[in-house]
Amino acid sequence: MSQGHWLSISIARQVLELRKAERCLGAWPVSTAAAGAGECNGSGQTPRGWHRIRLGIGAGAPLRSVFVGRRATGQTCSPELMAANPGRDWILTRILWLTGAESGRNRGGDVDTLRRLIYIHGTSDEDRLGEPVSAGCIRMGNADICSLFPKCYPGMPVLISEDSSCSGH
């Protein structure tokens, strides 16, 4: 994917768009934080503003692969595994780890997106996409994150906004 591509995430619309300049190349439903938007460490909120993809994790992993501490466990998420771990916030399939790009807003101190471990990742709650129910990350459908992942690269800009419009680059 060449320079000029970026991701736009609308908290209001619960949509992630892959964009080139002002043109939308693809859109997927997401789930942002149940606690709303905010940048503070420990808030459980989705951070706003400009970010960059720090790292993509999980290339080639099977659909619904379970990740813990950004490492594949070798497990595949199943109803039995979910029943044995009730209430767990599953990180599945692929991870796009975000870092803040705005010093003092989402980078550094108590508002550091990277240290907060904010990701775009696959989820076990695919039936809840379109609703703000995450613990702070941006959740996507597993097939959707597989489709998006190869189009992303380290350093790619990501805008997370509360606006209903996804443009803004």
From TrEMBL:
Pathway terms, separated by semicolons: Cell wall biogenesis; peptidoglycan biosynthesis
SUPFAM superfamilies: L,D-transpeptidase catalytic domain-like
UniProt domain L,D-TPase catalytic: residue ranges: 5-161
Pfam families reported in the protein's UniProt record: YkuD
Alphabetized UniProt keyword annotations: Cell shape, Cell wall biogenesis/degradation, Glycosyltransferase, Hydrolase, Peptidoglycan synthesis, Transferase
InterPro entries: LD-transpeptidase, LD_TPept_cat_dom, Transpep_catalytic_dom
Classification via CDD domains: YkuD_like
GO cellular component, one term: extracellular region
One of the record's GO molecular function terms: peptidoglycan L,D-transpeptidase activity
Active site: 121 (proton donor/acceptor), 137 (nucleophile)
GO BP: cell wall organization; peptidoglycan-protein cross-linking; regulation of cell shape
Protein family according to the UniProt entry: Belongs to the YkuD family.
PANTHER family: L,D-TRANSPEPTIDASE (PTHR30582), L,D-TRANSPEPTIDASE ERFK_SRFK-RELATED (PTHR30582:SF24)
Name of the protein in its database record: L,D-TPase catalytic domain-containing protein
